[in-house]
User: Fold these one by one.
Assistant:
Number 1:
Amino acid sequence: MQNDPLSNLRDIHLPEPGGFWPPAPGWWLLAVLALAGVIALGLWLYRRHRANRWLKQARQEIDRLARSQQGDHQRLVELNRLLKRAARRRYPERHPESLSGDAWVAFLRDTTPARGQELEPVFRALVESSWRPRAELTFEDAERACRQWLRGQKC
């Protein structure tokens, strides 16, 4: 039986299992999309942080004014200037730096989220404190109103 051709055949062999490298094209595509998403998210967060940097600086300036030993009148004048700078940064297309008096009060009221109508007398007293020798407003009330206005100004 030496001439039996079937005796020379080997048993069925399964192919070696594939390695994890190189990945299939679908995994490459998924990796590229994930990387693009991470980069896009990072850029968005960076731009948002830069766009709102003025807000952090404005809050720090209010903190500095609150600790200041100057009189209320001078601090109120500086607080009004701070609001003008912040409004110019947040609403450049509306040119708030050119507003004064009733127009400036209306701007502050209209751009204050939620409680703008309630804070209008405070804003009016703050604006009038710039040219009145004695303010009809305490710095603490004006500070609270300014912080309320800043709270709703994120870009």
Note: The chain has a mean pLDDT of 89.
Number 2:
Amino acid sequence: MAAPGAAGWNRRTDGHSGPLRVAHGDCPHTFTINHITETMNARQRLFAAAALVALTALPAQAATWSSSDQWGSWNNGGYTLYNNIWGSGAGPQTIWANSYSNWGVWANHPATDGIKSYPNVSRTIGKSISAISTLKSTVSATTPSGGMWTSTYDVWDSSHDHEIMIWLNYTAAPGATSGLPQPISYNWTSAGYAKPVYTNVTVGGSTWNIFRGDNTANLVYSFIRTTKTNNTTVDIKAILNWLISKGWMTDTTLGEVQYGFEISQSSGGKDFRVNSYSVTSN
């Protein structure tokens, strides 16, 4: 899909402001808020409406950390959160967090081709797969309707030759049999959809359609849940063992385990939230 951004292998891992000029010919409207009388013309009313939309996208209380920077990042509890707006043609996006397990992002990306961002939480493992006894992750998220996006893990080996995507929820049809987005794949159907190498494979606590391909930088294996969910536990070690059993990977050193939202389109602004999250490794 894309090369890593300036914040490291993190997808993907990678205004002008001024006074509002009022035309003297505009017809003013007068109203009262909190006993303060304001005069606004049509252009000012539109500006106020846009500001209200932006305000309602923020958490009810001020978050511990937030950033609208393209590569904004924050370390907390052994994890790192990234805003990670790596794609071209992106719109505004703000990430906020109270902790690595309670965070969210508001994004307003246009309805154009291409992935715009992958805001995520990342933890580095740094052990060979055979030396890992347990590697599981539990997540509870809230995702919007509409747009084009995936709620996905992105698991890397330390050399970044292998990338394992684990789609939990997404806007394509179940199992990515149709619709968008589509996973990276070597094989495609006559209708133009990615063709899985394996279908309905039960491993790691769920059932998946499994795809294989590359993005010219690294190999990509996509495990796409056949039933979408925002709340689950994934046995990542079991998925790694399955990949080794198929000869797709060897006993390599594991790098980062990331989870977040790969956003292609979110016109008008959409809210994505992680309500709870953890990675257990020993």
Note: The two ends are 30 Å apart (CA to CA).
